[in-house]
Design brief:
Layout (H helix, E strand, L loop, with lengths): L4 H23 L23 E7 L5 E7 L10 E7 L10 H9 L3 E5 L16 H17 L2 E11 L1 H12 L3 E7 L5 H5 L7 H14 L4 H11 L6 H10 L6 H7 L2 E7 L8 H9 L4 E6 L5 H7 L5 H15 L11 E4 L6 E4 L2 H4 L3 E5 L4 E4 L14 H8 L4 E3 L9 E4 L7 E5 L2 E8 L4 E10 L4 E12 L8 E6 L3 E5 L4 E7 L14 E5 L7 E7 L1
Parallel strand pairs: 3-4, 3-5, 5-6, 6-7, 7-8, 8-9
Antiparallel strand pairs: 1-2, 2-4, 9-10, 11-23, 12-22, 13-18, 14-21, 15-20, 15-23, 16-19, 16-22, 16-23, 17-18, 17-21
Helix pairs in contact: 1-2, 1-6, 3-4, 4-9
């Protein structure tokens, strides 16, 4: 399989970042040095103020490359809470060194390890499959046997892949009392195959980085080949593979374990969009917290990996302090849903996710629009890992001139100018009636904030794919655009644009297909927009 160049550039950036992570973390720790001693020995794991690089036995007889930080005052008679940190996809064991040192300095034993199949750890990439979950338990076993870790105070955390493994592990290892899952997934299928649409760039990045930095397992290679090759005959197998690796599948077990779970994500995460986290959060019954901020995949946590001040990691420390140390730091008294708008401002607090989008207004979508499929109109969701990072730091989301969009390839509806700012919070819902002259097709819906000059800034988007429909027969479509938090200024308007091609996704539009969007009198088309007063 040929991979795009972007993963190659990402791998180079990742390698440079790894070097910076190590030098920053170790340079910021006066007197810290790699501890001598036999790998895996108790002496090596208890060097004051330093990091011990060690081999840790994984499941199935493999070896995991790890490191251990221990509190400065560690002694044989004292026990400390322990936090286990599995690495992100394609990242080595150095990833969390800066945060691990901070945690150790505040009284934690911290064990980080390179996830199986990557870099120098043994085995093959299993994508949070059973061997990965067994590895996490083996690492906890090792920590309890070789460090002054307290078996009653075990936590797990991670970014991206490490977040998924941590969440999954809390379903199977009841020793885990607290989890912080940053930029991860709860539902792997909804993340990269939403509404039967393959997220091409997301899967391509994961595939490319996995091949460059690790050893993909046979099952993963087969699934990626079928997924990127649109082998719909294997869809059932792919769905089963994804469900087996989704924390949402094991929600009952996670709730039964009672671990305190904090979830953090970015509004523009192009690998794991935030909606699936929000749904999962609502179904958790134990102590829980949800934080959503501007950015793309893992960008909200990124500065913290270099030891810089970072809200996500700061709250992660508070979460562990309260739930593993019993600290009365007030995090349990704060409203558990914390959001920051993409357009600026401080945090907004809510009692639950439902309260975020409780108030809605309806925008009628009148008339009929017919578009020719298979041609990119110019409206698109941007580039994975890049566009939403630009939005985060420079307030530059993907933009388009709405008046210049070719109406033969893009269906467009617009509101009038708003007299006051519209604070969009949550998932915008599209309801329409679709008629296609082919049995399959893909449509992508975009919501834009349109200024006086007609320039539209992307507020949200989502794809929709259908198969097996009778040509010429109308059917209803209900589509939730990806959740967001965006303030539309007074004097601006909202525009809904629907076309059929976006580089983010694999489209299923036969040659010559036409899609018609209508609004029957008995079932009018509309847009339901969640707004805050």
């Amino acid at each position: 399989m040929r991979h795009p160049r972007k993963p190659l550039r990402a791998a180079a950036i990742g390698a440079a970042s790894t070097a910076l992570l190590v030098s920053t973390a170790l340079g910021a720790a006066p007197g810290a040095q790699a501890a001598p001693g036999a790998p895996g020995s108790a002496a090596a794991a208890r060097q004051a103020a330093g990091v011990a690089f060690t081999d840790i036995p994984g499941s199935g007889g493999i070896t995991l490359k790890g490191n251990v930080f221990t509190p400065r005052d560690a002694g044989p008679s004292r026990r400390y809470p322990v936090i286990v940190l599995p690495t992100s996809w394609a990242m080595p064991q150095f990833e969390y060194i800066a945060q691990a040192k901070k945690l150790a300095d505040s009284g934690y034993v911290v064990v980080s390890y390179t996830s199986r199949g990557f870099w120098l750890s043994g085995g093959k990439i299993e994508t949070a499959g059973p061997p990965d979950i067994a590895d996490a338990s083996k690492v906890i076993d090792w920590a309890l046997a070789h460090t002054p870790a307290d078996p009653e105070r075990v936590g797990m955390a991670g970014v991206s892949y490490g977040a998924g493994i941590s969440l999954m592990s809390s379903a199977f290892d009841k020793r885990i009392k607290a989890v912080v899952a940053m930029s991860g997934w709860a539902d792997l299928i909804e993340s990269i195959y939403s509404r039967q649409t393959q997220h091409r760039q997301a899967a391509g990045v994961l595939s490319g980085l996995g091949s460059l930095t690790g050893r993909p397992g046979d099952e993963l290679q087969a699934v990626l080949k079928d997924f990127l090759g649109s082998n719909l005959a294997k869809e059932k197998d792919m769905l089963a593979w994804g469900a087996k690796r989704s924390p949402a599948t094991y929600l009952d077990e996670i709730n039964a374990g009672g671990a305190a779970i904090m979830l953090g994500n970015a509004w523009g995460d192009s690998i794991f969009p935030p909606d699936q986290y929000a749904k999962f959060y609502e179904r958790l019954t134990g102590p829980k917290r949800l934080e959503l901020r501007p950015g793309d995949h893992a960008t909200a946590e990124g500065t913290g990996l270099f030891g810089l001040p970072n809200d996500v990691w700061g709250n992660a420390h508070r979460w562990f302090d309260h739930h593993l140390k019993g600290a009365a730091n007030g995090i349990d008294r704060e409203q558990p849903v914390q959001l920051k708008a993409r357009t600026g401002g401080g945090y907004e607090s809510y009692p639950d996710w439902a309260a975020v989008q409780r108030t809605r207004h309806t925008v009628p979508l009148e008339g009929t629009r017919t578009v020719r499929a298979g041609v990119d109109s110019g409206a698109n969701g941007g580039t994975a890992l890049l566009s939403n990072t630009l939005d985060q730091f420079l307030k530059l989301p993907p933009m388009v001139s709405v008046p210049l969009l070719p109406r033969s390839y893009a269906a467009v509806w617009q509101t009038g100018p708003y007299g006051s700012a519209q604070r969009v919070r949550g998932s915008v819902k599209l309801h329409t009636t679709l008629t296609s002259d082919k049995e399959s097709g893909t449509a992508v819906a975009y919501l834009y904030d349109v200024g006086p000059l007609g320039v539209g800034k992307l507020v949200s988007q989502a794809p929709y794919t259908f198969h097996g429909r009778e040509p010429g027969r109308a059917f209803g479509v209900d589509l939730n655009l990806f959740a967001t938090s965006y303030d539309v200024p007074a004097g601006h308007r909202l525009a809904l644009v629907v076309d059929t091609v976006d580089p983010l996704y694999i489209a299923h539009n036969p040659a010559g297909a036409r899609l018609t969007f209508s609004s029957p009198a008995g079932d009018p088309s509309s847009l339901s927009v969640p707004v805050r007063g």
